[in-house]
Amino acid sequence: MPDSSRVTRRAGPRTAVAAAAAMPLLTTAQASATRSGRPRLDVMTYNLRYASTAEPNIWAVRRPVMRELLRGDPPHVMGTQEGLHRQLLDVGSDLAPHFEWIGTGREGGSRGEYVAVFYDTRRLAPVEHGTFWLSDTPRVTGSNTWGAALPRIATWVRFRDLADGGREFHLLNTHLDHASQYARTRAAELIAERIAEFGPSLPCLVTGDFNAAAHRNAAYDILLDAGLTDTWDTAASRSGLYATFHGYAPLEPDGDRIDWILATGGVQVHRASIDTFARDGRFASDHLPVRASLALG
Q1: pLDDT digits (tens, 9 = 90+) for 138-157
Q2: How far from each other are the two terminal CA atoms of the chain, in whole angstroms?
Q3: Which residue of 124, 128, 165, 189 sits 20 to 30 Å from the alpha carbon of 172, by its own alpha carbon?
């Protein structure tokens, strides 16, 4: 199992206070159970687009749009990609005070982009967490042995679901390389190995920007061959399909899904959607967030 000592977590006394204060709300959450009888868990994956200062899509202009998007329909847990430390603090501040996040910079400490995991403390409590680098030396900070354009990492968290009798599950969040297919393939193999180490007793969710089209890339095939399912395909209902990377250009219907939410078997997916929220024609990121409403098997 990866070394969790390398991961930093933004947390504080308010975490316990928020969890305790939210106990009456858990009854409401339990009431919105899926057909399996388990409470619905709302999951999101979102490439935030790093906080650039280059016009025209600077962070200061995009931030209010992202604030509105996330506050309007906050997930219980969200895997993010590309966030810089200051940017993640902004996102955390813009969310409700009962949200916290876990992550580390890919260059170590607070340096470089994160694959941070945000979670609603009224619903979820982290039990343990860790990070590893997508390389032959996954414990070595900043390592990159497969020729990726940049060092890449994965963040994992074992959560306890406060609305489901303390049931536990794993979530792993990542961002594969945009340039090297070899690096994407090797990274998928390493992630599959790590998921196997978690063991079959707990459900596992995988979120990320994989820089690879679903159904048309070896990295996708490797992860599905490892026992994961694509929540988009298994959902009982879904939204319209759009390319999840748009680069601030007009949206592309029926385009490539390079941002995925995967799950181990037994997870019941109620709905999957690609969120096309924009305000006055402006998007919060160059990616669209992907959502899944599901129940852990």
Answers
A1: 999 999 999 999 999 999 99
A2: 24
A3: 165
